[in-house]
Sequence to fold (185 residues):
Amino acid sequence: MTSESGSGAHRVRPLLRVRQVREFTDAPVDPDALGAIADAARWSGSSRNTQPWRFVVIRASEILRRLADAGQPQTRALETARAAVAIAVIREQGSAVSHAFDEGRAAERMLIAASLLDLGAGIAWIRSEARPLVAELLGLPDDRFVRTIIAIGHPTEAAREPKSARGQARLPREETVFSERYGRN
Ligand SMILES: Cc1cc2nc3c(=O)[nH]c(=O)nc-3n(C[C@H](O)[C@H](O)[C@H](O)COP(=O)(O)O)c2cc1C
Fold:
């Protein structure tokens, strides 16, 4: 395996900068950027290409604040977000795990797209108790629910600061990446 400082590592570095942002400035988000983020999401691959998602792009500050209130503390990134994208997933017996996997792919793509556009984004997980209110706020049909909302905006200076000491944000490579056999470096 190549070292962490090789050219491969350098080229994937933009991905390593994709982190959870929970605090945003008042600067508005360009509608074109939001469209690009939604497109990145809808182009995600899904199991059997079922595309179990629909994406609700939210820009109204009143709705963003009410969504933030609906699911604290998980939704705290929505307090200051200037925009958000809610992932409305279809309810389907027997497909919960596969749909959650697909949803996660779309969510991560939105975080990556935001980062590539010099924006910040963060996941807000909607607990099951908060889902009926979120469904009402977003006008969801009965056969869909929202578990993930991506908060989007321009990160504050504080939000750009590392949240943990250098080298502490992830488990070390030798504890997480093995060669040929589990546990072997
Ligand atoms: C499935 C999932 C659910 C998450 N839910 C929330 C959440 O509800 N609220 C939140 O602020 N962060 C949430 N996060 C973000 C994680 O807390 C964050 O990715 C983790 O602490 C690592 O931080 P970093 O991405 O900035 O390195 C979630 C992340 C994942 C993958």
Residues 34-161 form a domain with the NADH Oxidase fold (CATH 3.40.109.10). The CA atoms of residues 94 and 127 lie 20 Å apart.
